[in-house]
Fold each of these.
Amino acid sequence: MFSLFLEQLLNGLQSGVMLFLMASGLTLVFGVMGLINLAHGSLYMVGAFACAAVAAWTGSFWLGLVASLMAAALAGALVEMLVIRRLYKRDHLDQVLATFALILIFSEGTRWIFGSFPLFLNVPEALSGTVTMPGGSEYPIFRLAIIVAGLIVATGLFALIGKTRLGTRIRAGEADREMIAALGINIDRLYTVVFALGAALAGLAGAFVGTTQSVQVGMGEPVLILAFVVIVIGGIGSIKGALIGSLLVGFTDTMGRFLLPIGFEAFFDPASATAIGSALASMLIYIVMALVLFLRPSGLFGTEA
Amino acid sequence: MPEAILSLSNVTKQFGALLASDNVSLDLMPGEIHALIGPNGAGKSTLIKQIAGEIKPDSGDIRFAGRDIGDLDAVERSRMGLARTFQVSSLMPEFSVLQNVVLAQQSVSGKIFRFFKPVLSDASLLEPAMAQLERVGLADRAEMRAADISHGERRQLEMAVALALKPRAFLLDEPMAGMGPEGSKRLTGFLDGLRAEAPILLVEHDMDAVFALADRISVLVYGRVIATGTVDDIRGNEDVKRAYLGEEA
Amino acid sequence: MSMNRETILNIVLAALLIAVPVIAQIMGEPFIITLATKVAILGMAGVGLNIALGYGGLVSFGHAAFFGIGGYAAGILASHALNYEPIMEAPFEINGTTQMIVIWIVALIASALVALLIGAITLRTSGVYFIMITLAFAQMIYYFAISWPAYGGEDGLSIYVRNSFPGLNTLDPISFFGLCAAMLGVAIAFSAVLIRSRFGLALHGARQNSQRMMAIGIAPFRVRLVAFVISAMITAWAGALYADLNRFVSPSMLSWHMSGEIMVFVILGGVGRLFGPVAGAALYIILEHLLGGMFEYWQLPLGILLLVVVLFARGGLIGLLAGERKHA
């Protein structure tokens, strides 16, 4: 029982860290550019497909990983320059619709190129296999690796935002959009870089998760919704909020799905317990979000936009 | 002695280190124009917002029409009869001049949640609305979009909307702002006649208008009322002179 | 009534919507009638959204929740009736029904209650938070429908026989089309009356300047909530019709893709235009079947079209054909 619990805990951590990669890009783009981007999930998908395609072609997962970063960043930069740039001054409805249109374009385009069947992305040799956890069960090394990788990236992101010149510009941009233009910073290029950075993070998450699950069209959408819930909980524009929110959502979702059906078995027969427990588990995150918003309307670390 | 329509007692509001309102007490008697003046940054806007219900004071009481309105929000205070105009015109840009006033008229009538009868053919709203426009001199602009009229006309529209509310008291925040000498003179004459309908708490920078209109003046400096009195009292007050002209006076 | 271009266009659209299925009936093409029925129903869902979105300026990204509530009202009531199983036995017995009118009333009431609850919470937020939280509530309902096994879960619920309407053979495609078109007509007429009413003026005012609304003594929150509830009810009614059209209801009616699609109808046709959602729905269905027949990945050009409309042709199809809207 303990080993099962530990396993779910680690899964929750993995889920949270991967969500952070998605949510951080999303919250950066919103915080700096004021733009709500539904196509973020598509960039996640692009990363996964690029990794799978290149890994299959070259036989190397690592090359695939590099490809996922580059493809997602490139796609992000292109999309920003062609489409997103025209949306900064528009209202939220236009941004929602335009990026929804991008989802359709990316999804159908990917389906056209790769077909409707999922691609396979295999765990690299070096990281395959399992490791024995306290309690006796086996946990895949790869999953531990992506938790570590994700945490390293998170640390890198905090360092970038906190300690570099780019980071300073990003933080300044979040605080006062008009001011940084007046300070002579090349806004166009800054925005493209920020967008591409967010895209790369999403692509990386896509590659990682695609390896543990599967690579298929539309894989980014459930994650996108969760990422939005995360940034609403954490506060739009706050990377720290994105981290706390991601871990909260990751753990709540994973542990909820694990514990709630078990908990309900005390009151109902197993079949009903599973049904009610699962139903409640899926709704749990949204209930948490509603609660957070009720108590803190701008999210945990958000500033009133 | 008649009771004040509006009275503030020891109203205090602090924003972090900034004391925006420092134990402010003043009142508005029926039939009077009470002007509130003071240098920029004195806290006049903050005070207006607290009276209107947009901000809650940290302490102190505000009474209006005989009751404590501290717990009422801006909508409720407006419905009680407190009409306020904004320093920066706050209108419905897509509506016509007439529609802006009709909406206020509709609010007064109390019947908002009506879904079937067309509002713009409702004489019970249109006639009073046009009457208000005629009073402020905007009748010929009735069909123009509010976004398309001039700045001075927008100030007039603000006034018409306030009139339509048939209020118990007016809260006017720099109505002369941005008006030329012609417009200011006309508005001064207008306000002079208005005080009989309902008393006016007038925030203004235009000293000519203030001295011509005010029955009483309160001077606000750094959030505190440093003097209240008639025009002559204030004109001769040393503290006031110093506050406006600086230490050299 | 002044005959401006938009009014003429609306009349033409209405005429086309009636004429196409009538001609199809004469030519013996029931599939076209079904398509026209779909346009009427989806258009009606869009008319509902348009009240909140177009007139009220509320970007509700969760309207599929109401569409689905309407659909499930039809599905649940019908399945209980057809299986001769009461919905509830104690404290008093409630049976299912296959009468459309009863189903519609249930759909209207259920959606109104849910919209009241959701609106009371979401309308306290604004901007992105509002969009996200409406989406989240819809997702909650979506996942609930998937997990609740009693009504089919992910597989959905079939309605074996289309529900009944007095005096009509609802199984006959043209009769059912007539019914849906009539309901669409009611929704559009109500929408038109609403926008010209006192409530419509207040709603339009709330969209422009909340601060001014409060200063004249009208609470924008209350106005928006009522608009949200009305909007939900109309979309739910369309959902009930949709379930009867397909004789099937599934959680996909509650998905955010559905929310997005309803928004697409409204945008393609023209936000805030009376017949906008109908024009948009028609365009969408035409693309789906004409383009979709030739090109499997037809949603790719749809996405490009949507992008172009959003970026360059904000007024949608009606805006393009009838020009700038005269001020309200």
Amino acid sequence: MAVKVRVPGPLRRLTAGESIVEVDGASVGEVLNNLEQKYPGFRERIYDQEGKLRQFVNIYKNDEDIRFGSGLETAVAAGDDLSIVPAVAGG
Amino acid sequence: MGRVKSLICRECQSEFEPQATHVCDLCFGPLEVKYDYGELARTVTRESIEAGPNSLWRYRGLLPVEGDGELVTLGEGMTPLVHAQRLGAELGLSNLYIKNETVNPTNSFKDRVVSVAVNWARANGFDTMACASTGNLANSVAAYSARAGMRCFVFIPADLEASKVLTTSVFAPNLVAVEGNYDEVNRLCSELADSYHWAFANINVRPFYAEGSKTLTYETAEQLGWRLPDEIVIPIASGCQFVKHNKAIQELLELELVEPGKYPKLTGAQALGCSPVATAFKDGEPVRPVKPNTIAKSLAIGNPSDGKYVIDIANGTGGVVESVTEEEIVESIELLAGTEGIFAETAGGVTIGVLRKLARAGRWKGDETVVAYVTGHGFKTIEVIPNLERHRRTIRPSVRAFEEAFPELATG
């Protein structure tokens, strides 16, 4: 069950420049674990030392911030898009 | 080497070459401009500032726009610091000041950050400015791009107030109305910023852009006679400017531009309908994003990037983060207008509302120097004022009709 993960510019050197990569998993957490297996380096950048998502990392499943769903437990299915987006300032 | 040493990560302290990026390569944390404070101390004094132009560029030596080349400017900054005696009397504060940011060139404090962003972008080879905006930033980026002769793309939520759309359109940017809320517009722009080599004011050039906010606090100190106030009340959207006011205070003290003394308390103001930071402050929990529902659209950021830092600074300085209802926002706009002659937009209503709420709750003895930052003009959000004509009385053109309309004036 591959989902498409959109990689933000600052992290693309982990994916050899690819902006979209396909990764398996049934939940957001699983996809991120598999992403780490495939492209080491993601985990330390998006999780804090306690193993929680860093506060300034936003992850969207399709159009919805996963914090409005079940966080890392949020289920994903083939064809879903996940976006990793760093927090930005207001305007 | 100039005065900008590097971009430093607020989280892991890694340092990077100054460039158009806002995220740490190693930990994803936000990047800050780091200066060579030895160089700043050698070059910036009260006298050098006072001899500068009557705009925020008198603080150029404390900003990341290096060199002495010609600037793109509309005369932003050096807005009045008004001793608010009538509002102060209502609230029991004898040393209340309003920093009136409504008189900036596009009528909000955003002109401070945008003028720094545009000048930095131009000096660093960009030909296109862009931004995601709740309105005020759109006005400002469009105006300064026109002034600089740069191409401009402005992304706004499609339901933005008509007045803010018009006051952006007039500068002829490429105006993109996105069917989504501000957080969604921001996300789109973050993704676009990876593909297009444009200067997105609040995204990839954010570290430089955000530095412009510091000038509000520099000015406040200078206008108080190189003295820091006891407390500052600041509206919070992403929390970006709140953090920069703290940095400005640290720099003023470090460079000995102000007398050492008590550190000001920094207090934040949010609308109850979008109060993720105020809620987290009260509960002592991490900031959780919310879906905004408030008339204070310029503060309607449900996912505030700097929320965590705002809470740390409020706690560290003895400030608080408080919120007010929609009704209190409107009442406070009218209170400020009726007592001080300053017409603020909804964000100003939030700030004055929180000031009033705290004053009524007995936060101050009465003689503290309290400054409220009123960051945008009321013309931007006239829709929220109920029954705009209720002070009007229509009469026939005769003295009798006038006296009938105002029986209270009759002398008998």
